[in-house]
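Q: Could you fold this chain for me?
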Amino acid sequence: MEEDLSGFVGDGSVDLRGRSVRRAHTGRWKASIFIIGVEIAERLAYAGILSNMVNYLTDILHESTATAAKNVNAWSGVASMLPFVGAFVADSYFGRYRTIAASSVIYLLGLILVTLSASLRSLHRSWIFFFSIYLVALGQGGHKPCLEAFGADQFEDGDPVEKKNKSSFFNYWYWGIVFGTLLGVTVLMYIQDNVGWGLGFGIPAVTMVIALFGFLCGTRFYRHKLPDGSPLTRIVHVFVATFHKWNVSSPPQEEKKVAAAAEKEGLKLGSRRQYLPTDQFKFLDKATVEDELDYECKTTTRNWRLCSVQDVEEVKTVLGLSPIWMSCLAFGIVFAQYETFFTKQGATMDRKIGKHFEIPPASLQCFTDLTIILLLPVYDRIFVPIARNWTGNERGITLLQRIGTGLFFSFLAMIVAALTEITRIKAAKDNGLIDMPKATIPLSVSLLLPQYILFGIADVFTLVGMQEYFYDQMPDSMKSLGIAVYLSVLGIGSFLSSILISVIEKLSCRNKGGCWFVNNLNKAHLVYFYWFLASLSAINLCMYMFLANRYKYRYAQNNIFYQEESCKEKTLLAS
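A: Sure. Below is the predicted structure, expressed as structure tokens.
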């Protein structure tokens, strides 16, 4: 299929000055390649802070292992939740481009402070370090959701070729994330462990300067989506109007279709495409019913008693995503472990390659990254075309099938991690090293490879699937928020992991069996924690499969469509 490069982009995209843009000169891979390059640099910087943070906290700031793990999880959780702020600002007021540029400056200031706190002895204070890294988190909060959504904006859904390329973009976007992270957990971690923390934190600051410069270089190629006002206000508006009309009967489906068509003809939607009216959450349809009091409110700026069909359908779409979001939280909890306890496990094992080189503990995460780097091109170039011919789905498998497959592999990863921990503890006992936490257990670190590789496979399916799912299914005016919702899975998962560690630590220390988490990892009971997470993953997978089977995909249309029970769409009103 040849791509039509004639004419203007038909999805409302504009340039930085608000002018319509031509398809041949903007967007597509020529623009997204700049954005992926920026993300590679940003991820290298981020990995340089996060991946070895637990060791910096224990070795330099002298925190206990459990305290350091909780602080890392808490910071990671905040960093994954702040994108809601950045996404809201971008979608509502500033647009993605300006939000990315401003947040990059904040990000850079935080990295400079981290470097100074690690380089100067007079600044070796916990509060200075934490202030710096939370400044990094704030900058990342605007950078992360907007950059990915901005990259996806470069492809038009109305063009068949660009729509397929958009799906590939999410695969190569995550490939870029992992490639940058891999550089961080290998080169930077080695420098931090063997040269110095000042240089190890200084390189990310320089890298962020390069990222900002690269982003600005691609400005003339970018397509921009204009901000459409506060989505939060529209959501609140729908619920307030529903409350006012609680005793009103919901309108029939045919009446909603007519109202939706009238909105389309009246051009009330701006740049937003239209959703087909549905019977989901029917109580919200009350907000679209007009009564006598509504006529009295027509002179006001906003009639809080009445909403458009479009606004109601957008709120329904957001609510419909909630069950899937909640069923992904267990994956976020499991995901938090390979950056904390997996690293501490590896630190106790034989990490030598040859006689002189020793793998830094945090660099063990590179095995997960290498798995992703190798598998993502295979998934996009081989698996998807084969599956597409078999299923007829343009993505090969559905987005929810992709996410569910990754959840299954994360479950297997925790089982393997538990079995590996049993082997590690047995080796420590057999060699009389239980009371020697700093001694190296004569057990090759390669024993950890299966759990890292399984995590890599899980990421290829679940993380990339979640990114595309929440971007694709969110309304047009909330695309950045869609990426923020995906990131919140990891953020809340980190918070929940931190809470679990705290609760289990208190409860287990009361029992005669001993604490599950102690500084001496050989006397800890990590295996119990891993079995608990494996059980949680199994239960969650069953719940996810139930919810995914009941979920109905929703798509915005330039035309108005209705949907039959057979899920086949037919045109109701030609544009």
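A (continued): Strands lie at 349-350, 352-353, 357-358, 441-444, 560-563, 569-573.
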